Amino acid sequence: MTPRPGSLCSQTARRKLLAMFLALVLGTSIVLYAYPGAGGPATYAAYLYTRPRPTESRRKKPLPQHQQQQQQPPRTEPRRASVETPAGSRPGTQSSAVAASVAGPARSGEDAEPESEIPAGERRCLPQAIIIGVKKGGTRALLEFLRLHPDVRAAGSEPHFFDRNYQRGYDWYRSLMPPSLKGQLTMEKTPSYFVTREAPARIRAMADGNTKLLVVVRDPVTRAISDYTQTQSKRLGLPAFEELSFRNVSAGIVETHWNALRIGLYAEHLQRWLHYFSRKQFLFVSGERLVTDPATEVAHAQHFLGLRPLISEENFSFNTTKGFPCFKKAESQGQLHCLGKSKGRQHPNIKPEALSRLREFFQPFNRKFYQMVGHDFGWD
Ligand code: A3P
Fold it and tell me: Measuring CA to CA, which of 3, 38, 99, 198 is 20 to 30 A from 59?
């Protein structure tokens, strides 16, 4: 069954209280109207006072314990969201930075808290903007940079709603979003959406095609090596990159079924999205420039998202130890935050002939992609 989004945002706590109050008033009025002889609050109060009380014998006997258990509502499924370590999260709270699955709602950063603890005037909304890809493009960096903006509220973990968790429904998805005020923008990132066949139609259905989509793209060969390096960090004895890349090494026949390479066929994946979204719904962010000039890439993203231009050069500083830009959060008095250890890994050396064959292979796909998006990313 296809879940329906209902309204984008949950009600604020204040509105919920008002709704409950109105329901109570309405309910009482109906009782007063329906009860014979009801003449107003005084009569009703008198009725409540004088009405016959149930005797002990007429009261319901408590059920035996095993039957009580049967009458409990079924427990809802534990909530799961894939977790990466966002910058600044406490060390040791999440062991693995990549796609680990933990019980409970997303836990890192500003994640789901019980409804009762949502501050007054705030509510949770379905995302109006999603970073849909690409895996290892620099998606965590972009999300963390955008989170510096006071009008951005983003789920810290990857919800994987439109690929793995769709059947859990929109209430589940909304519960993973942080509380937000009116005027704030809710976001999430799940890079696998970009290559998930069902994702475009599903995301379109959420807000009638009005969701803003951000895609961080990176040279598909470097991206594949980054992807491989990540897998290698979790799996001992993985064959060499060159072995996995070619069906026939000497003939240079590329193994297009290998996911690490398939993800880099951006033009093919984008084609599917364009059946459901117009080009203007997308922003393509250069993964390379996100490292060399983060402020400019973030400025484009702010503009695309309709945000005030508040994030600037001053928020970034290149950290020579990490070899990447790190950033300053407004609330942490100039302290620099860098992404976790799983971002910016050392890549293995790949044989030059394998690299040049892969570059040759991707060239026509890259060219087609540049044409589709109207921008040359300079990978060739
Ligand atoms: P590598 O680890 O291969 O260098 P994603 O967040 O989509 O998984 O992408 C991870 C990649 O983000 C990293 O790949 C790294 O190159 C890139 N990146 C971009 N900006 C970064 C930053 N400020 N700090 C660390 N990594 C960054």
Answer: 38
- Phi and psi of 90, rounded to 5°? -65, 140
Give the pLDDT score at 7: 86
Q: Tens of pLDDT along 76-97?
A: 344 446 656 455 443 333 333 2
Q: How many helices (H) and strands (E) does the chain have?
A: 13, 14
Q: What is the pLDDT of residues 262-273, one digit of tens each?
A: 999 999 999 999
Angle in degrees, CA 284, 150, 84, rounded to 5: 60
pLDDT > 90 fraction of the chain, expressed in percent and rounded:
67
Q: What's the rounded Cα separation, in Å, for the pair 242 and 226?
A: 14
190 CA → ligand 1 middle, Å: 15
pLDDT on residue 84: 63
Q: 344 in ligand 1 pocket by Cβ < 6 Å? A: yes
Alpha-carbon dihedral angle through residues 82, 86, 92, 95, given to the nearest 10 degrees: 30
Task: Name which of 4, 339, 341 is nearest 138 in CA terms.
Answer: 339
Backbone dihedral angles phi then psi of residue 317, each to the nearest 5 degrees = -150, 130
Q: Coil, helix or strand for 130?
A: strand
Helix (H, G, I), strand (E, B) or coil at 152: strand
In the chain, the domains with their CATH numbers are 125-155+186-373 (3.40.50.300)
Q: Are 148 and 314 in contact (CB under 8 A)?
A: no
CA of 49 to the centre of ligand 1 (A): 70
Q: Is 343 in the pocket of ligand 1 (CB under 6 A)?
A: yes
Q: Cα–Cα–Cα angle for 136, 137, 141, nearest 5°? A: 95
Token pair for 154: 């983003």
What's this model's pTM, rounded to 2 decimal places? 0.80
Residue among 85, 132, 136, 228 whose CB has most ligand 1 atoms within 8 A, to mutate: 136
